[in-house]
Fold each of these.
Amino acid sequence: MDMTPTIAIHLSATLSAVLVGPVALWARRGHADGPKGGQRPHVRLHRAAGYAWVTLMLIAALSALFIRDFRLPNIAGYTPIHLLIPLTLGSLVVALRALHLGQIRRHRRWMTSLYVSACLVAGAFTLLPGRYLGQRVWGDWLGWL
């Protein structure tokens, strides 16, 4: 599989989401100097990073629809990792709906879970030697094993 424009868009969005996600999560935690010595969140930073992260996740999920791999076990080019597309889109809907309804704890749980599962866990799977990014990262280095 070669680096196509679709893969470049997907890769750019996912790597950016991995970097922006912690900013959104950290900004909500806040900093000292809050009322009565408590935490005062960086609301504007959280909101900006959150919007950016959601946009990047949408780009990543939607671009993944156009990336197909016929070498791995698949159905019409869609491999098991493609099951993350509806999971990601559904999780974003649930998390944003919770926010709209003022269910902040639920929103936080869904967004944190989505970051861990879609960015960190799925990202780790893409580094497997048989995957495109795994081949790019590891190259022939694993060939000597």
Note: The chain has five helices and no strands.
Amino acid sequence: MHTDINALFDALWQDYVEMTPSAAKIHQLLAQGDSIINDHIALRTFNIDKVNLSVLAKHFESLGYVACGDYNFEAKKLKAKHYEHPDNTQPKVFISELLVEEFSPQLQASIKDLVEQIDEAATTADNFLYSGRHWQLDSATYQALLAESEYAAWVAAFGYRANHFTVSINHLPGFETIEQVNDKLKLAGFTLNTAGGEVKGSPEVLLEQSSTMADKLDVQFKDSVQRIPSCFYEFALRYPKADGELYTGFVAASADKIFESTNNAN
């Protein structure tokens, strides 16, 4: 496991930008020469013991992160937790897991087969969180997973890596509102996720979020290459709580729609 938080996030970012070429362009577009503060990253997994949420979380807990919130996504059959570091300049971490047992026997068998191919030692290695796919996958299995759960298909195709990074609009010079960020992105030709509206959340729930639709990448399957959605970039504006401190949690109803940034609609 990493002993240096910055080294871990640098490695996650390098892998993410390879999966998400648009992120580097957006980074430049919004930064305008300044640095961008990352609000949080998100990771996806299955609730199978070898790779469940807590296995991923250990990589962050060993660096001082602590669990701060639990979330349920009933329609998508997911559970999630978010983690924060005592040094609040470090990004938050949002980890979700698919409740595999709530799906068809076929999906359960497919996922079990994928997870069985992972070497147990790989899950505690330094690079696990940005190590990608640890299994063979054919296009028929991918399509069958996709028919039941976009999330399951995404994890099967991309494995272990950041699903998205998030620009903290609170720390972004030159932008006051999330609408200004969205307008700048649209003007530059980027497609936003409109599920539940371009802006998810509100000042009332202390968090507004938006995101791009995922880039499309050519992915190598056992029997073919397919162009499918990879990762996306998110933007978050946080509002102060009654005590004046910025809200650090997440809003399940908004996160539910953010998950749809990797949907396979053309």
Note: The radius of gyration is 18 Å.
